[in-house]
Design goal:
The chain is mainly α. The protein contains eleven helices and no strands. The protein has a single domain, classed as MetI-like (MetI-like fold).
Length: about 200
């Protein structure tokens, strides 16, 4: 959300030509296989990959730094893979928003910051909720990114669930982890749906 909202806001407020180009750049990764994109990050972040070679060439570091098989690598992989799922719902909501409301608030003396928090943010809530659900649900059960970028030490719940089922063959523990994962997915969905329903009732 911290990355997606500013990007979606900037796209929605840009001119039509720039907007089309930016949306194309957001959607472009979907034309490439998910697995190939993860492997591309492996090539970028390994000890003698593009990032380390660039840093050593520029003199920032003397020897390669460990980027692969770290929490940082998992974070980068998850953010890159699921950021479009946050940006697109937010963009759709912000693009339909009536800018006259923001201008009216500023004409009445509200600062740009106050107008954002009182007008833009509440009107963007449907996109925020949709984006959070679209990102949270698949990211919670993600297995490929922790396995390839995080290595054997990563303990994301999707990786733990896979290992308990197919490596350790501990079916009771794996079933318990699966139930926990199911609850972690269902509870936020129910909460957000009720929150959105109450918000719609209050506005009507």
């Amino acid at each position: 959300l911290a990355l997606g909202f500013p990007m979606a806001y900037g796209i929605a407020r840009s001119n039509p030509t720039t907007r089309s180009l930016l949306l194309l750049l957001i959607v472009l990764p979907f034309w490439i296989s998910f697995l190939l994109r993860v492997y591309a990050w492996m090539g970028l972040m390994n000890n003698y990959g593009v990032i380390n070679n660039l840093l050593m060439w520029s003199g920032v570091i003397d020897q390669p730094i460990q980027l692969m098989y770290t929490d940082f690598a998992i974070f980068v992989g998850l953010a890159y893979s699921y950021l479009p799922f946050m940006i697109l719902p937010l963009y759709a909501t912000l693009e339909r928003m009536d800018l006259d409301l923001v201008e009216a608030a500023q004409d009445l003396g509200a600062s740009r910051t106050r107008a954002f928090w009182d007008i833009t943010w509440p009107l963007a809530k449907p996109g925020i909720i949709a984006g959070c659900l679209l990102v949270f649900i698949p990211a919670m059960g993600e297995y490929v990114i922790p396995y390839l970028l995080g290595g054997s030490e990563s303990l994301l719940i999707g990786r733990v669930l896979f290992d308990e089922f197919f490596v350790n063959r501990d079916w009771p523990l794996a079933s318990a982890v699966a139930i926990v994962l199911l609850l972690l997915l269902v509870v936020p969905i129910v909460f957000l749906q009720r929150y959105q329903a109450r918000d719609q009732e209050s506005t009507t």
